[in-house]
Design goal:
19 helices, 45% helix, alpha/beta, N-utilizing Substance Protein B Homolog, Chain A, 3 domains, eight-stranded mixed sheet, disordered N terminus, Rossmann fold, four-stranded antiparallel sheet
Length: 469
């Protein structure tokens, strides 16, 4: 992404028109990006939640906001690669570099190696940023380091600092594609060695903004953009601010990845005999799938109850579904011990908490935040939630288990454990629910796995379970 044009001069009390970069420490886009990186590091913040506040703090809109967004997202995505480059340019371990300086060096490296920012602008503005935030000594250090970084392009640096791919394929992927080693290994197990590079590369591509029209509330043809290839409800936004789209501003449409739309569509498409009046979203936060499911349910005369354990996420669900059709209510409740009568629902979605390794395109910091030990705890929770849902669904009803992860322990492993534990449950063919989606066979027969590099969606896993009568 090219750097936005700016005119010289300092910010006064009234923000001027976008300016050409001057290298002065008050450059608002770079200050905003540094603010977000520090929030992610210090406060364990999510970049997508910290970024809007930083943009507001620095008065950024339009191209300046887009520039700051790419600075943050690109730096977080490629942090592993950039750290390997920086380690080759610094004569001490990166752990010995002051954290604020390292944040700025990563920003500068992304501008030099991953963006179409002129080298002098990337270098000078980063040095000035370090000078204003740390001091002149640190600025001289940053200047020397970034001059070394600027000596080669990204591909050349990867060739110099990444291990040989034949001798150490995991180590090579860690540097070349900026994923932790355990994530590389888990994704290789899920997708296979041949497709692994394409998947890792797709994780580093910014996702396109996808909108969803909630049926009965909005029409897809009133949304700008190209219709999504698989979901009947979505469009890929041409550009601009999605919040400026009237249907989005009014809550009749929303921003939602096509993979998430397909999860809702799959549950709604499952065949049922008998009652089909009451649906449940057991883990509904932040509310996008619940809003779509409720709208689909309303068209059939059914209603959806949305359950969410975390109060702040339950409030997000209430906001997402407010004023929409088909919502029976939003309840703050523990999905592993739900306060509902057994066998009282016809369809249930379990979009379980997971590692989120299927959404690294849109949550780039997750790859650095998750740890291998997280898996064991999450798998236990996932099995408990599916077990609760199977007790809540009526005989003959269906439960759709979904995770935004392709990791086998969270997908096939959970389904196998549930089937082994219950004799009254069978796995059905989810592929029949989404026949329009090609090349999406999951790790177990009848399950589905979406992929960023194949379908341009998050890596959603789907398994349809039916409770026998």
């Amino acid at each position: 992404m090219a750097e936005p044009g700016r005119r010289g001069g300092r910010r006064g009390s009234r923000r001027p028109a976008p300016r050409k970069a001057t290298g002065r420490p008050g450059d608002p886009a770079r200050l905003a990006a540094l603010q977000v990186l520090q929030a992610v590091r210090v406060d364990d913040a999510y970049a997508n939640l910290a970024l809007p506040a930083a943009l507001r703090d620095h008065g950024l809109q339009g191209r300046d906001a887009a520039f700051a967004t790419e600075l943050v997202s690109g730096t977080l995505r490629r942090r592993g690669t950039y750290d390997a480059v920086l380690a080759a340019c610094i004569d001490r371990p990166l752990a010995k570099v002051e954290a604020k300086v390292l944040d700025a060096l990563r920003l500068g490296t992304h501008q030099l190696l991953g963006m179409r920012v002129p080298s002098h602008a990337a270098l000078n503005t980063t040095v000035d940023l370090v000078r204003s935030r740390v001091g002149p000594g640190a600025a001289s250090f940053a200047n020397a380091v970034l001059r070394r970084v600027s000596e080669h392009d990204l591909d050349t640096w990867i060739g110099r600092v990444a291990p040989d791919p034949d001798a150490d394929p995991t180590g090579h992927a860690v540097v070349a594609y900026s994923h932790p080693a355990w994530v590389v290994d888990a994704l290789r197990e899920a997708v296979g060695a041949d497709e692994l590079p394409a998947l890792l590369a797709a994780d580093n591509e910014p996702p396109r903004v996808t909108l969803v029209a909630r049926p009965g509330w909005a029409r897809r043809d009133e949304l700008p953009g190209e219709p999504t290839p698989y979901s009947p409800y979505g469009v890929v936004l041409d550009g601009g601010d999605p919040g400026a789209v009237p249907a989005v501003a009014e809550g009749r449409a929303g921003v939602q990845d096509e993979g998430s739309q397909l999860v809702a569509a799959a549950l709604a498409a499952a065949p049922l005999t008998g009652s089909d009046a009451t649906w449940l979203d057991l883990c509904a936060g932040p509310g996008g799938k619940a809003a779509l499911l409720a709208a689909i349910a309303a068209e059939r005369g059914a209603t959806l109850l949305a359950n969410e354990r975390q109060p702040h996420r339950a409030r997000l669900v209430a906001r997402a579904t407010s004023g929409g059709p088909g919502v029976l209510g939003v309840v703050t409740g523990d999905g592993t011990a739900p306060p509902y009568r057994p066998a009282s629902f016809d369809r249930i979605l379990v979009d379980a908490p997971c590692t989120g390794l299927g959404a690294l395109r849109r949550r780039p910091e997750s790859r650095w935040r998750r740890r291998p030990e997280d898996l064991a705890e999450l798998v236990v929770l996932q099995q408990q939630l599916v077990g609760s849902a199977l007790s809540l669904v009526r005989p003959g009803g269906v439960v759709l288990y979904a995770t935004c992860s392709p990791v086998l322990a969270e997908t096939a492993g959970v389904v196998r454990a549930v089937l082994d534990a219950r004799s009254d449950v069978r796995l059905e063919d989810a592929g029949a629910l989404l026949p329009q989606v090609p090349d999406c066979a999951g790790p177990l027969p009848g399950t589905l796995q979406l992929w960023p590099h194949r379908h341009a969606t998050d890596a959603m896993f789907l398994a349809l379970l039916r409770r026998d009568g």
